[in-house]
Amino acid sequence: MRELIAITVNDLRVFLQDRSNWFFLLIMPMVFVFVIGAVFRSSGGGEAPRIRMDIVDGDHSPAADALIAGLAAANPSLIVCPYANLSASEGENPCNLDADQAQDFTGELAAERLKDGITYATLTLPAGMQAAMLAGETTTLIFSADPSLSAPGIALQAVQSVTTRSGGALVAAGLTTTAALDLNLITEDDRSAFFLARYNEAEAMWGPPPPVVVRTEAIGAVEEKDSEAGFGGGYSQSAPGMAAMYTMINVVGLAAILVQERLDGTLQRLIVMPIRRSQIIGGKILRGCAVGLLQMAIILGLGALLGVHFGSNPIAIIALVLVYVLTIAAMSIFLATISRTPDQATGIALMASMALAPLGGAWWPLAVVPPFMQTIGHISPIAWFMDASNTIIYQNGGLADIMTPLLVLLGFAAVFFALGIRRFRYE
Amino acid sequence: MPSIISVRDLKKQYNPPDGPIAVCDVDLEIQEGEIYSLLGPNGAGKTTTISMLSGLLTPGGGSITIGGHDITTEAQQVKRLIGVVPQEIALYSRLSARQNLNFFGQLYGLSGKELKQAVEEVLAMIDLTDRANEKIETYSGGMKRRVNIAVGLLHKPRIVYMDEPTVGVDPQSRRRILDTVLELKKQLGMTVLYTTHYMEEAQELSDRVGIIDHGEIIAEGSTGQLIQTVGEEDQIQLRVGEQEIPAAIISQMEQVEGVTHIRQQDGDLVVRATRGRRALPALITIASHSDVQINSVTVKEPDLEDVFLHLTGRGLRE
Fold first, then answer.
1. pLDDT digits (tens, 9 = 90+) for A205-231
2. Element (H or E) spanning A381, and its range?
3. Whole-prediction pTM value?
4. Are B4 and B32 in contact (CB under 8 A)?
C-alpha cells in the first residue's frame, strides 16, 4: 500500500508541476461554466420552463369550459392558449397571439403554431363532447405534439390528469343518476338535467383543496418560486456538464503521460523494482482518480458557490462523482494501451471528450434533442453522469434514484479496466 | 565459490515463431565482487539479456539464478538484490534529482532517516549534491546519466546491472562514470554486470569480458585471455593516402621478418606483425626506396576490437 501511495503521490507531483495542466484544470473549466451557464440563464434555462398548449374547443359546452379550467390549474408550467391571453394583464401576451387570433381561434391556426414551434402541443375538444359524456359514451380528445420533444409529455400528463378527474366525476354522476332512477326519485325526462347537476357537483368537489393532488413537473420546473435561487440558474446545466467534460479531458489525457513514461523507460524502471505490477497499475489508476476528484471538486465547488443545489443527499452526489471518476480513469488506462505516442494519446483524449461531451448532454440538456439522439447520446458515460446529476439537482434524488446510471457507469469502468489491464504493456 | 549470477541456456525470441532471435543459448557464471562486461555491437542482444536478468522480460527458455533465487519463481527476492541502470534516462524530468531519488528510494523500501541518508550518499557519489534540487530537465546529458546511475545504487544492492551507461555523454562525465563503477567494486564490493559496445571501457573496467554477437556469447575470459586468441601481433598502419602501391612492393614487405599479413584499406597500408616495432624500420626503408610516400605511422597493440574482428570479421561499430 505504501508503494502504491508513493507512486500516486509522485505521479500527481509530476502532473501538477506542469503549469499547462493547471490551465485545463482550473482556468478553462471555470470560463466554460460561466459562459455556458450564462447562455442558459439568458435563454431562460434557469427559470421554470413554460409550456404552451393550444386548445381547439369544438364543443363550447360547460363540460369543455370545466376541462379547460382544470387544465390551466393542473400545472403552473402549462400555458393554456388562447385562454391564458384572455385572463392576462394588459401588455402581456403569454400565448403569443394577437387579440383577433385569440378571439377567433381555429384548428388551422393551432396546427400552424404547432408546426412553427410556437406551441408544444394542441388539444382538440370535439363537438358533442358534453352530449357524449351525458350519454355515457366514450369521448375522444385529440392530443397533437411533436414526438421528438420531451416538453409535450408534461402537457399530456396534465391532460390525462384532468380527463381522469372528469372521468371520476362522470362515474359519480352516472351512478347517482342510475340510483335515483331505480328509486324513482326522478323520471327519465329529468335524467339529463339531473346527470349534469351531479356531474358539476362532483367536479366541484375536486375544487380547492382537491381530495388528491398529483402535481406534474417539468425538468427544471419549480419547487420554490425563486427558481434561480433553487437551481443556480443555467449553472445547474453548466457546472455538472463542464465537470464531466473536463474530468474526461484531464483524466483521459493522463494516458499521454503514461505513454511518455513507457517511452522514457520509467515504467520499465518500476518493473525492475521490488514491487508488484498490480501496485504500479494501481498507482496509475489512483493518480487518475485523484486528478478526477480534484477536477470535480473545483467545478462542482464553483457550481455550489454560484447557487447550484446538489440535493439534500450528499451520499448520492459523492457516489456519482466517485463512480464517474473511476470510469474515466479506466478509460485513461485503456487509451494508454492503444496509443503509441503521447501526442496520439492527447489527440484521441481531446477528440473523444469533445465528441462525447455534447453527445452526452454536457453542453446542453439531452431533453432538447430528438429521442434517437438521446439514445445515441447514452453511448457516452457523460450522458449517464448527467442523468444522475439531473436527478439529484432537479428531483432531489437519492442513491436509489440514481442506481441505474451508477450501475451503467460501473459497467463502463469494468469493460475499460478489463481491456486496459489485459492489453497494458510496460515496455 | 558459487556464482552470484548463474545463467543456463538463456533464450529469447521476439514475436515467435517467426520473429528475430535476440538471445540464443547464453551461459553466464559471474562471481560475487566481479565486474563482468558484455561487449558487443548494437543489436547483439546485450540489453535483452540484461532485461531478462532483471525481470523486465520473461525468458523464452533456460534458467536464471541470482543470489540463489530463481528469477521466474522468486522475482521479488531477486529484485531486492539488484540495482538496474537502464540505457534510457529513466527519470521524471519535471522533478528534481532529489525528488526522483526520494521516490525511487521509497519503492526500494527506504524511509525516514535511512532514505535521507541514502539519497545524500548517492548524491555525493555522483557529485551532484549542490544541484540536487534543480529539475532534471535543466541538467546536461552527463549529469542526467549520473542521476540515472544513482537511482540504481540507492539501496546498496549486491549486484548492479549497467546497460551502456556512457552512451551519449561527454568525455569528462564518461570518466566520472567509469570511476564510479570501479569504486562500486573497490569500496562496496558490488558485483557489476556492465554492457557496452566501447571496447576501451570493457578493457579498463572488467575482470572478465563476454563478447556477444547475434545473441550468442562467442568468447569469454579476461582481456588478456581474449587477446591471446588473436595472437600477439601488433597492427602497423602506414598512412599512404591515395597512392597506388604496386603488388611487388607489398610482396617485398611481406618478406620482412615478423610480418604476417598486409592489406590496403582506406588510405592505409595495414600490416600485421609480431613485434611490430622491430619490423617498422625495414618497412619504411622498402617504402622510401620505392618512392612510396608515408605521411604517418601508427603502431597499435592488439585489443578487444581486434578480437571481435578476428571472431566475426566485422568491427564493433559496424
1. 765 544 444 444 444 333 333 333 334
2. helix A381-395
3. 0.67
4. yes
